[in-house]
Write a structure and sequence with these properties.
CATH architecture of the largest domain: Roll
Pfam family, one: Fer2
Organism: Lichenifustis flavocetrariae
Keywords: 2Fe-2S, Iron, Iron-sulfur, Metal-binding, Oxidoreductase
Radius of gyration: 15 Å
Shape: globular
Strand content: 5-15%
Low-confidence stretches: none
CATH superfamily of the largest domain: Beta-grasp domain
Distance between the termini: 44 Å
Structural class: alpha+beta
Number of strands: 5
Protein name: (2Fe-2S)-binding protein
Number of domains: 2
GO molecular function: 2 iron, 2 sulfur cluster binding; metal ion binding; oxidoreductase activity
Length: 151
């Protein structure tokens, strides 16, 4: 049994310790907001927070996540999350939406560490979050908008 604390709730899972966190979240716990994209930590669709830091859940074993606070898109809250979500909606960032939970998780991670990010900070933090619809300009604008909301 492996115990995972996800979005404030503890879950005991009878699973292989090497199982990717993504599959535990989606398949065993039925939290489908976190998406499968590539499976090799290159696209960012599976981004969750591990102790407040963005990580790729497709390459994080559940044994490595045990004992840590895991937050998925379903569980984000607080001022930074609210500012990011409001900016995303107001600036109409989403096109197809598939990558957006990972984009939002990375943006929240960035603004939690760097409240007034430069374009370079945004590029660096969002590197590895791929958007097939190429909404990168809107994503950058929404991050700046969220930072302004928090100021």
């Amino acid at each position: 049994m492996i115990s995972l604390k996800i979005n404030g709730s503890t879950h005991a899972l009878d699973a292989d310790p090497d199982m990717p966190l993504l599959w535990a979240i989606r398949d065993l716990l039925n939290m489908t907001g976190t998406k499968f994209g590539c499976g090799i930590a290159q696209c960012g669709a599976c981004t969750v927070h591990l102790d407040g830091q963005p990580v790729r859940s497709c390459q994080t074993a559940i044994s490595d996540a045990a004992g840590h606070e895991i937050t998925t898109i379903e569980g984000v809250n607080g001022k930074v999350a609210q500012a990011v979500q409001a900016a995303w909606q107001e600036l109409d960032v989403v096109q197809c939406g598939y990558c957006q939970s990972g984009q939002i998780m990375s943006a929240i991670g960035l603004l939690s560490q760097t409240p007034k990010p430069s374009d370079n900070d945004i590029e660096s933090a969002m590197d590895g979050n791929v958007c097939r619809c190429a909404t990168y300009g809107r994503i950058r604008a929404a991050i700046h908008d969220a930072a302004n909301r928090l100021a």
